[in-house]
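Quick one, T. Sequence first:
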Amino acid sequence: MTVSLHDIPPELWVEDELTRVYLEALWPLVGSPITIKVGGGCNSIKALVQEHRRQGRRNVFGLVDRDFRRPASTSWLTTADHVFVLPRLEMENYLLDWQAMATASSPPRDATYFETRGRAYAQENLLWWMVCRKVLVQYYRLVNERFPGHPPIPVADLEAARGYICNQHWWTAIGATVAAEVTNNSLTQKLQQAYAKHENQLRSDAWRNEFSGKEIFGWLRGHMGIPYSGNPLDAAEKIALWQTKNRAVSAAQDLFDLYDEIKRRLMPSTPNP
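Structure tokens:
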């Protein structure tokens, strides 16, 4: 029996409520709607998608922030595991659409007003904050790279447990790695390199993609007539509506491409007998 795609609603699992509300307002969900669900952090999303697909539900996808992961070497839409990693730091970076913010603000303002204040906020408040975050992530990766997984069952005794851990590459290499990298000189060098990179981003438009969209959007909401303590979902919806009407010039083209890619991948699933 052939199963219609309309009988198997596709699902996209995302990390938070703002992403869900924003995408639902942004995408033209007609015909075969994509149900957007909140699943928590990156690891939770990956586990959810993997489990659903293991059960034969092939129209289940995931979407996560890139955060400080290394950018994909190929198009972010070509992922084979069906969990898409945004090419920008966070989902909120797509809300830093100056014309959309200007139109949605009350009273209306011009786009330059938001761009100027967003860049100044990033320069004055987030530059060294981003540098510190990036270096901390580098040390986290240093310690956790090739970290051993669970041992197979059974582990018979103390010697077996010791043997499993001691035979791992991580165990044999971590001491020398930490000794070489976790030093005051190394820390200073990493901080200086990260600072140079982020400062250079501020000289171009790259900062809008690489600095924390969560922090910048949260601050700029006040200039839209929505206080920082107000509901961010209202601002996200207003920006999305403008972006949908002005797709060709909006800052959200990546997300329209994602919608098209998910539709392209949809397929009927084989029903259970």
